[in-house]
Amino acid sequence: MRQGDRRQRFDELYVEHHAALHAFFFARTGDVELAQDLLQELFVRAWRSIASLETLPAERRRFWLYSVARNLVVDAYRRRGAGQAAQERLQRLILPGHVDAAEHLAVEGEALAELDAAIRALPWDLREVLVLNVLGQNTSAEIGEIVGRPAGTVRYQLAQARRLLSDALRLEEPVS
Amino acid sequence: MSTLDDLLARWAQKQRLTPAQSSAVRQAVLSAARAEDEMDVDWLRHLLRPVTVLLDGPHGLHEVLSQGYARGF
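YS: structure for the whole thing
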């Protein structure tokens, strides 16, 4: 493949997938900087494999990207030597950079700060599907493929996450 | 009063990569890829060095072979 073609294929792949993959890394790690590092590493690997990725149907290409992404998250935590610590971190984090609560209140406003805290307090599996949906703008079916759960389970978990957030923020959820 | 959807949309907007961040990641990937490509060329050159030294040296294989061939091997 010529260098120009390779670059063009790469750009198309990047434009199509980078935002959703960033959401995936953010959902899995809760760390905005780590999410960017992993996104970069993933696309370096995609660049190396661009010629073979090019030959795959869109669905398989997507499967490849998320398989590599999952492995990168596992490797990142393994490198940090923190199996248990990683779990605790995932339980604890969703906000970028441990923003101080008071500072966050001042900058973002009370409602968003409360929402941050409520998302952080969600069980990790609910938080994961919520972030993939809200930040990654993935459908339930797409999230199901990414996290390996049936789409119906994802829909249920999304509804559960929203209900917990509404309760925490004392909002009324519209009946669907 | 904000609805949950409004709040979530605003929250997502804050977490999403900005165009500048997105572009920075892309540039970093392309720089890393370029460095790798250059490194591969060096690696190949290094790998072939025993052969290229024989061919290009002062009493190089290329010259020896050419002379032998000229003498009518």
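YS: worth flagging: Helices of chain B lie at 4-15, 19-56, 61-70.
IM: good catch. Also Residues 40 and 46 of chain B are 10 Å apart (CA to CA).
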